[in-house]
Amino acid sequence: MNFLKSVFSFLGILLGVALPCFANPSSASSNISITLPTYTNIMPITSPILTANITNRTGNLHSPLSSTFRVITNSPEKQTLYLNAHVVTEAGMEAAMFEQGGQVYIAFANLSKIPTSSALANCKYGGMPKDSPGVVAYPVLAVRGAENKYVSGKQKYEVYVNNGKTDVTVNVGSNVLRSSFAANDPRGFYQAILSLTEADI
Fold it and tell me: Can you give the pTM of this predicted structure?
């Protein structure tokens, strides 16, 4: 009797240990993954003043101009962006940002009477006011919101942004570059196209 009791006790122990192994179904796992590349999104934000009137006697603007770009990036490293300006001349699109006497300016070109490429060049290089008809220029007072520097050789700013959201604001002053304003500047709308880009174009 003790022998049978011992056998049943042994089987009970054996089954108690073995059953959990049979109760669990077999399983396997496989890792799946996706990759999110580095991206940068740049969009313009409407600013309080994107247009202004020119005072006909002085060439100064009634109010300064301001333009803001919003940059969103997931890059863990500092990104370099490029802030530049262009105008339309008879030769096509040309760079409109330039430095004169240590001050950065943006040239604006008449839209109804398109200026010549030489008129733009005369404005940039300090020619006589009469030599740049259809082109007037105003100073860049500040580029705010991100570290930046003007690169004369490229006629543009390098703007450095970090991970996350950055608002970059460009403030253009109201005082005209004296050598760019003359009586032979035709009336009408003057425009410059301001761009913030990833590519150094």
Answer: 0.81
